[in-house]
Amino acid sequence: MKLEHCAVIGGELALAFDDGFEAYLPLLFLRRACPCAECQGEPDALGRVVVPETSIGDRGCEIAGMDQVGGYGLQIRWADGHSNGIYSYPLLRQLAAALEN
Q: Would you kindly state where each structural domain of the chain is located, as residue ranges?
């Protein structure tokens, strides 16, 4: 699975993969799904995941830039400075599927 094209169109991120799969993900939905430990939490020494309370800044749903990471993911730089999350291609497809249901 390879990402062939991605672009911000209005309030959505449009994605096109090499197998013909296309997705349009609302930016707020995408930001709330940020997979980084700061947003989703991480396991402590006992394996418990504590999800931190986070807030999205004024420009938190604007994309300042994007970089493909290896052959497996997309790192989004949000305009409020947040850029820790790497959205794997399978995760992006799961997010698209969640929107369909």
A: 3-100
d(CA 68, CA 32): 20
pLDDT score recorded for residue 44: 83
User: DSSP code of 53?
Assistant: P
What separation in angstroms does the CA of 70 have from each of 45, 74, 89? 30, 9, 11
Among positive and negative, which fits the CA dihedral 37, 39, 45, 46? negative
Distance CA 53, CA 39 (A): 8
Q: Kindly report, residue by residue over 13-55, the tens digit of the pLDDT.
A: 999 999 999 999 999 999 999 999 888 888 888 888 888 788 8
Q: Tell the CATH topology of 3-100.
A: NE0471 N-terminal domain-like (3.30.2020)
C-alpha separations of 9 from 6, 32, 42, 84 in Å: 9, 18, 32, 22
Nearest alpha-carbon partner for 1 in 89, 96, 98, 100: 89
